[in-house]
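Quick illustration, no need to memorize.
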Amino acid sequence: IRVIVRKRPLNKKELERNEADVLECDAQASCLYVNEPKVKVDLTKYTERHTFRQAPECRMPCRFDDVFDEQVDNSQLYEQAVQPLVGTIFRGGKGTCFAYGQTGSGKTFTMSPLPLRAAADIFSIVAQPSYSGLALHVSCYEIYGGKVFDLLNGRKKLEVREDGRRRVQVRHCFACFSLLDCRRISGAAARSTGSTGANDESSRSHSILCFALRTTGEPQKIVGKLSFIDLAGSERGADTYDNDKQTRLEGAEINKSLLALKECIRALDADARHIPFRGSKLTEVLRDSFVGKNARTVMIANVSPNSGSCEHTLNTLRYADRVKGKARRRI
C-alpha cells in the first residue's frame, strides 16, 4: 500500500474570505505540518501545530511515501504514483488507485486524467509482439445510495456477485482497441453530482473505472486488473445546514460507506480473522484492493489548506497515517 498526500491550492472563495493557508508541506522529507487556529477559554487566540513525520529515533519509513504540494501537476503525480501500477497488471497482479478526502479537496480533479494516461501506457505495451494475445476491456460504474449503476449503459442497475473463488465480478464491460475508444468511454461516464453547503459541484457517489486485461482466445481469462476509484467526499453535519433532505440522505449514505471502509482498514490492521468487507457495496468492490499477494494499492489523500477545513484535513491525514501504518507492519 502506497500512501500519497496531495495539497490543493486555496480556491477563489477561500481567498475572498481571507482564509489562511494552514498546511505546510516538506516534500523532500515527506512530512506535513498543520497549523490549527484555536481559541482558549479566555478567548485568547493561539495556534496548535500538528506534525506528521516519523520520530528521528524510529527506523521505520516516513509516515507517507510522497507529499505533493500545490505546485505538483497531475502529470508528475501520474508518473510517480500510478505509472508503476501499469506494469503490475502485465505480471498477473491487481492495481488500484483511489482518492480519499473531504468534499471539495480536489479528488475528482486529481483522478480525472489518470485513467487515460494509464490507458495510453497499456496500449503501448500491448502493441509489443510478446503481448499480442491480450486485449483491454473497460467497465465504469458508480455506487450511489448503496446500489451499483452502470455508467456506460444508461445507468442500469448492476449486480455485484462473487465467483467460485470469492472474487468480485461486475459483468458488463466494453472492449477497447485504441485510446480514442477509451476517451469516448470516459466522456460517456457521467456520475451523480449535486450542490452542497461545502461544495457547489460535489460528487454524490463513488465512481469506479476498471481496466481488465483479458486473453483474446476462448475462454477469455483475466490476466490483470487496474481500477481507479474516486470516492465521494465525507461531510460534517455543520457543512450540511442548508442542504435539502435528499442531499442529507446522500451524505449519510456516503459517510456510512466510508466508515465501513475504515472498519475494514482497522480489521486488517489488527490481523482480525474476519474482515467486514460486506459492510457496504463500496467495501465489497474494494476487497481485491487489499487482499492477495499480487495486490498493489495507491491511496491519494487529498487535503484542503484553508483554516476552515482544519478538522477535515487532520482527520484525512490521521486516516492516511493509519493505512500507511498497516503497510509498515506488513513489511
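Confidence is low (pLDDT under 50) at residues 55-61.
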